[in-house]
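Could you join me in thinking about how sequence relates to backbone shape in a protein? We need material for that, and I hope you will provide a protein of your own picking. Label the sequence line and the structure token line clearly, so we can match residues to local backbone shapes. Would you write everything just below, so we can both look at the same thing?
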Amino acid sequence: MNTQKLLYKNVEFNIDTYWLDPISDFTSEVKHPLVIIFPGGGFTFHSDREAQPIALKFAAEGIHAIVLHYKLINDGKPVYPLSLQETAVTLNWIKSQAGRHQIDLNKVFLIGFSAGGHIVANYNSLMTDPETRQEVFDEPIEVEPCATILSYSVIDLTMGYPDDIDESRKISPNMLYWQTQEHLNKYSKPTFIWQTVSDETVPVMNSIIYAQKMDLLNLPYELHLFATGRHGLSLATHITEDPGEGSYVNYSDAKWWSMCLNWLKLQRVLPV
């Protein structure tokens, strides 16, 4: 893993890169897909449980991975629009690395967990629409994500998380960024969604309303709701278990990973 500093209009942010090295035995170049990971953390920190462990799982499947340390509210400034601008800058930077690291630019996708999922969902709505994109980022974006993955994601800031309207205003005083489902459009990308019905932090209706809106727009999606399991499961195995907190292990919910890989095959991101 290497940390790379990027800039958006003199605002610095970090990404962690997990590059796959070329296999010297191969007689021809192999280009790999790439995933950008947005960890959760309630917009106040980036959860390590949803960063490196996820990156390494994708790497084991032949996918380059980047963990994006997006804008938080710790300095008293809102998350939006800077987090979306940081995402756009990261996508443009990826193009500059495509030759060096053998990246398949047609197979770049985003995955978000909890609060990080809100940023991914907003990107899939506001940043796929040419008109609203111009309001957020006034430069060309060189790489278009082909798909998104939402893991127990915050979708609508008025639907249970945060539970205080003032906290929603800290995330963004502009309500344009609150309800990600409302800005889905014909250009939005196929999405894999999973959550547990018993999620005690982000109500499961967040995932349901997003899938419902995609369905109304005839956008491709796959939705999996597991009966039980706490918020923040990550891989839901011992790999991401907080020591002494067995509630982070749920091998039924852990099936989301194999389901997600199968879906990536359906999207032609991974070979069938």
User: Anything to note?
Assistant: The CA atoms of residues 12 and 114 lie 24 Å apart.
